[in-house]
Amino acid sequence: MKAVILDAASLGPDIDLSSIRTQVDELEVHEQSTTEQSRGRLAGAEVAIVNKVVLDAATLEALPSLRLICVLATGTNNIDTATAERLGIAVRNVTAYGTASVAQHTLMLILALANRLPLYQRDVAAGRWNRSPFFCLMDHGTLQLEGKHLVVVGQGELGSRVAALAEAFGMRVSFAARPGNEANDSRPGVAELAPRADVISLHCPLTDATRHLVDANLLATLKPDALLVNCARGGIIDEQAALAALREGRLGGLGVDVLPIEPPREGHRLLDALAESLNLIVTPHNAWITPEARQRIVTLTADNLRHWQQG
Ligand SMILES: NC(=O)C1=CN([C@@H]2O[C@H](COP(=O)(O)OP(=O)(O)OC[C@H]3O[C@@H](n4cnc5c(N)ncnc54)[C@H](O)[C@@H]3O)[C@@H](O)[C@H]2O)C=CC1
Ligand SMILES: O=C(O)C(=O)CO
């Protein structure tokens, strides 16, 4: 069985691929591939191993030998899964590989926004503390998390761990109903919970049901001091509407680890806004990157290959 890794560089140079190698007859490793290059590189292979390269319908249709796609991530939104299913190509992702890593990053964003870290860091760098008439700066009101209400969208691996960490800070947590399935869900929908939220944290996949889940209408119902954190996928928030709310004082803070197009080669309005005095944090989709999590991805992918071969 021949397998091809299309974007090994995205796992980092320190990661040992040997557990994957032992599961296949031949492993071809490419550091990075475009969608166009993928077609040629996957020709004749039974297995594609991919982190974030987009495998669209045209690509999959051009690969009659392909039987399995192993995604080196939890999110599978870069794969046309409907086409894969139609063509009989199995898709296996990895889950629970980096729960501690991503949850830690999410809490970092919540804590930094609650304490207005972007604003105070800027003030200190500008020498405002040096010129302060008294011993501290307190121009930006901070948010005590204890006693406040966290709304989590996506009661899966990551949402549940973030909830547990937030509870350790004394927060009260509500899980929103699964978007698109509110009628069959006993939990309240995010629209119902949003006006009562002090913090909203997103941990659902990007699907047609979750694209722009947090849009201008939902943002308009938030408390003006509420914090919004997205460590899931770009596009679940309408980033333009969220930035407008932040600038107009209708949102207390915005923290994102993900953007709709990554890397953002053409730029993005949130990146431009980092130059402004806003309670805004953008991290480069690196919530997951602890060495432990990246090595676990390889182990779980080897398991996926073994289980698939065993039928
Ligand atoms: N920023 C980062 O580094 C990382 C981001 N992620 C993102 O976080 C997301 C969540 O990861 P996990 O908690 O591990 O996944 P999970 O599968 O354990 O949980 C996802 C939850 O979202 C819910 N959900 C809500 N709307 C849904 C819909 N329309 N379709 C399907 N499920 C829906 C599911 O019911 C489930 O409770 C991933 O899909 C991925 O996009 C995952 C790992 C790292
Ligand atoms: O696992 C995921 O879904 C990530 O976003 C990290 O690659």
UniProtKB/TrEMBL annotation:
Pfam families: 2-Hacid_dh, 2-Hacid_dh_C
Signal peptide positions (record): none
Name of this chain's protein: Glycerate dehydrogenase
Keyword Oxidoreductase assigned: yes
Keywords, sorted A to Z: NAD, Oxidoreductase
Domain spans labelled D-isomer specific 2-hydroxyacid dehydrogenase NAD-binding: 107-287
Family: Belongs to the D-isomer specific 2-hydroxyacid dehydrogenase family.
Organism: Billgrantia endophytica
Occurrences of domain D-isomer specific 2-hydroxyacid dehydrogenase catalytic (ranges): 16-311
Domain of life: Bacteria
EC number(s) from the headed UniProt entry: 1.1.1.29
InterPro entries: D-iso_2-hydroxyacid_DH_PdxB, D-isomer_2_OHA_DH_cat_dom, D-isomer_DH_CS, D-isomer_DH_NAD-bd, NAD(P)-bd_dom_sf
GO molecular-function terms, A-Z: hydroxypyruvate reductase (NADH) activity; NAD binding
Gene3D superfamilies: NAD(P)-binding Rossmann-like Domain (3.40.50.720)
Entry-linked CDD domains: 2-Hacid_dh_4
